[in-house]
Amino acid sequence: MTKILPNRIKSIDVFRGFTMLLLIGEFTQFFELIPHDPTTDEGFISIVGRQLHHHPWNGLRFWDLIQPFFMFIVGLSLPFAINNRIKKGNTSKQIFKHVFKRSIILLVLGWALYCIANGSITTYFQNVLAQIGITYLIAYLIMKRTYTFQILFSIGLLIFADALYLYFPVDGFNHPYILGQNFGAWFDSLYGGADINGGWNSFNAIPTAAHTIWGVLVGKLLLEQKAASKKLKQLLLVGLILVVVGYAMDPLVPIIKRIATSSFVLVSGGWAILIMALLYWLIDIRKLDGKWTLFFSVVSMNSLFIYLFAHLNGGSLIEQIVHPFTNALFAWSGVLSVEIITSLFVWSSFWGLCYWMYKKQLFIKI
Fold it and tell me: Is residue 35 part of a domain?
């Protein structure tokens, strides 16, 4: 249990809470209830529904940005966390030990979630927690270097990953942008962790480390003693450049989240910075905070806990309890309506649990 730290940049908490609230919403099945099949569903609601699901391959939807947001926020928070540990008297050795331990825990948790879901031991490491376990450590190891070094290092990771996909010489895995026939699929096949059907690759942790590195850079920028308006301009400029360059690359390097191509990393990283800039302007510059920011912040304070709770079928438990009541009260409106109301109740229960923990000052960290 920890106490809330003073002088927080509220926009970071709101960004984290917003991202996590959407992530746990996936476990309520609410998004599945919204029409989203491009071959049969039409109209505005269907367009929105498709944005709440991953693009099948080449392209970008809103839901493809959620994991990059999460990985970016991990980096964004790192300079603040390190500063707090330094103020408490931690040595560099103690801080590294904590970071390394946390990386291992995240990696193991991500892997364990696959094992629990499958009911057997698997070797999947595509989970967002497992990916962050790698990107978090990489970002920390270079965070004391110059801005230029970190930027060049992150670009180097993208070039390195693209080169492996483009020039990998093994027959059957030398088609960079074809599902199950690329370097990432081969890499996963080495340890039995291949996910051919979905196309998700554990090697994604290498190029997407750029998201966490860029988060660290933004966090360091926000800590600098300079005018907030100047920081905002820098965020907007960098975010726009990344988005424009990423989309411009699409004809040559397709935007594919499932294998984290460089164009995808650039576009999604750019959007993460632009969203952060918007929230920073609204909350920390314009001071338009209040109850609406608290709504997201309470989720932010226990983001890892509520993610694990939702992932471990916490929603199913709540659904079993409330479904008989929602069915009794709303059966007249149809089966679909009952399912939607039930899923919304489960989603609000997740938030309610976070709010209760916030009021009790219970904050679970690793």
Answer: yes
Contact 231, 290 (CB under 8 A): no
pLDDT (0 to 100) of residue 84: 92
Q: Within its chain, how far is the Cα of 68 from the centroid?
A: 5
* DSSP conformation class of 61: -
* Other CB atoms within 10 A of residue 219 CB: 26
Confirm whether 220 is domain-assigned. Answer: yes
Q: Which residue, among 354, 268, 220, 311, has the nearest Cα to 71 in the 3D structure?
A: 268
Within a domain: 354: no
pTM of the model: 0.93
Confidence of residue 4 (pLDDT cuts 50, 70, 90): very low
**For residues 258 and 318, is the Cβ–Cβ distance under 8 A?**
no
Is 364 among the domain residues? no
Residue pointed to by tokens 């939807």? 61
Number of domains in the chain: 1
Domain extent for 251: 10-313
What pLDDT score was predicted for residue 359?
95
How far CA 29 is from CA of 58, 85, 173, 265, 342, in Å, comes to 25, 39, 35, 27, 10
Q: Which residues face 256 on adjacent strands?
A: 58
Over range 112-118, report the average pLDDT. Answer: 87
Q: Rounded to an integer, what distance in angstroms lies between the CA atom of residue 214 and that of residue 72?
A: 7
Contact between 152 and 229 under an 8 Å Cβ cutoff? The reply is no
- What SS3 state is found at 87? helix
Q: What is the pLDDT of residue 7?
A: 53
What CA–CA distance (Å, rounded) separates 279 from 256?
27
Q: How confident is the model at residue 196 (pLDDT cuts 50, 70, 90)?
A: low
Sequence-ordered list of residues with C-beta below 8 angstroms from that of 121, at least 6 positions apart, any chain = 115
The H-assigned helical ranges of 168-261 are 183-189, 209-223, 228-249
Interatomic CA distance for residues 11 and 214, integer angstroms: 17
User: Tokens 């690793």 appear where?
Assistant: 366
Inter-residue contact 219 to 77 (CB < 8 Å): yes
Cβ-proximal residues to 305 (8 Å cutoff; 6+ apart), any chain = 357, 364
Confidence (pLDDT) at 124: 86
CB atoms < 10 A from the CB of 291, how many? 6
